[in-house]
Amino acid sequence: MTTERIRGRTARRRVNRMRELEGRVERLEEELRWLRRAVEANGERVGAKAVGRCPNCGEGLLSASGSELRCSSCGYAKFL
Ligand SMILES: [Zn+2]
Predict the structure, then answer these.
(1) Are 22 and 12 in contact (CB under 8 A)?
(2) For residue 77, which phi and psi values (nearest 5 degrees)?
(3) 72 CA distance to ligand 1 centroid (A)?
(4) Looking at the 3D structure of the chain, how many domains does it have?
(5) Could you count the other beta carbons within 10 Å of the beta carbon of residue 57?
(6) Residue whose C-alpha is closest to residue 45's, from 66, 65, 75
(7) Are 61 and 53 in contact (CB under 8 A)?
(8) Is the dihedral of CA 39, 40, 41, 43 positive or negative?
(9) What domain range includes position 71?
(10) pTM given for the model
């Protein structure tokens, strides 16, 4: 195998690794944004508990307070 070929393979491997890392960073950033919203939502609503991602907008956070579930970003609400 030529040096040129080996170099090409190493470069491709590096590109793949970079893409993998980029994907991971993006997922972690999204998770972090979401967790930050969870913390903010918990701070805003005393006694509310973050329960999950909003099924309506997919962005906001659903928090439960008593028998009510409410989204922090789109206002979606559901009574249990
Ligand atoms: Zn929502």
Answers:
(1) no
(2) -135, 150
(3) 6
(4) 1
(5) 13
(6) 65
(7) yes
(8) positive
(9) 3-79
(10) 0.52
Q: Which residues are CB-contacts of 3 (< 8 A; sequence separation ≥ 6)?
A: none
Predicted confidence (pLDDT) at residue 4 exceeds the cutoff of 90: no
For 1-80, strand residue ranges (E) read: 49-53, 61-65, 68-71, 77-79
Please tell me the distance between residue 22's alpha carbon and the centre of ligand 1 in angstroms.
27
CA-based torsion, 47, 52, 57, 58: positive or negative: positive
Q: How far is the CA of 77 from the centre of ligand 1 (A)?
A: 8
CA of 60 to the centre of ligand 1 (A): 5
Check residue 46 and give its pLDDT. Answer: 67
Measure the CA–CA gap between 41 and 47, rounded to whole angstroms: 10
- Split at pLDDT 50, 70, 90, the class of 45 is low
